[in-house]
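Reviewers of the previous submission asked for a worked example of the structure-prediction workflow described in the proposal, so we include one complete record here. The input consisted solely of the amino acid sequence. No template or homolog information was supplied to the procedure at any stage.
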Amino acid sequence: MKEILNIAVCQCGVVWEAPQENLCRLQAFIGGYLEQCGDNDRPDLIVLPEFFATGFTSNTELAEKENGPTLRWMQALAISSRAAVTGSVPTAADGKVYNRMYFIAPDGRTEFYDKRHLFRMSGEHEVFASGSTRKTVEYLGWRIGLNVCYDLRFPVWSRRTPSNDYDLLLNVASWPSSRMAAASLLAHARAVENQCWMVFCNRVGESPENSYCGGSLIIDYKGRSVGNFLFDGFTGPDGGFLRAALDIRELRRFRDKFPAWMDADDFELN
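From that input alone, the workflow returned the following structure tokens.
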């Protein structure tokens, strides 16, 4: 059990539909960050945005097989950095294409979650298959819920329940600048209503149809934004790392002192 979990949220730019270039740039970006970390603030978990290697594209030619190069890169990074790594990758499996969020532990153990809510305003639902199962992973004694971008708008899906219990909810996103006010409100609401730590990881830069300003967040169980941001200028003036140390003891004390979860409504998902 690790009572303090060090989080590094990678707010990076993404070159459109250029996975090899993006992975090379990220390797240098993350490597430089790790070199400046001391023993006390070295990350236990590195969080990457949605489709960090390609940009938010519907081009299925960029979908990778289940053991594709981006996943192998993530696994190698987790092992070399001695930190878990998470982010989403367009993935072809079972004759379909998914927006798949991987979670890789430092020992190479790999788990995944397929995005449930597909962004119909961009036609994502016409290209990708929707996931059907919520996912919580166990890491260093923490229970961590996985969530991708548009999922953030759907509180029932993300609700912490006895069968979907977690301490930390991760949302990896490609959330455009024009809707960032909503993203901040939604992320804070998810943290408060679920009495959990909340991490929202967003990209910066440009794509053919959208601009991205970052706005990544680490939020505590009371709805307070925490962490400090290290600017790097990675493909834009807002690139860098948001980092914080999350304390599970404080979370548990708060839940015991203010057990609103005990009055939550029961429900079933269809």
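The chain is about 25% helix and 30% strand. We consider this example representative of the routine output the project will generate in years two and three.
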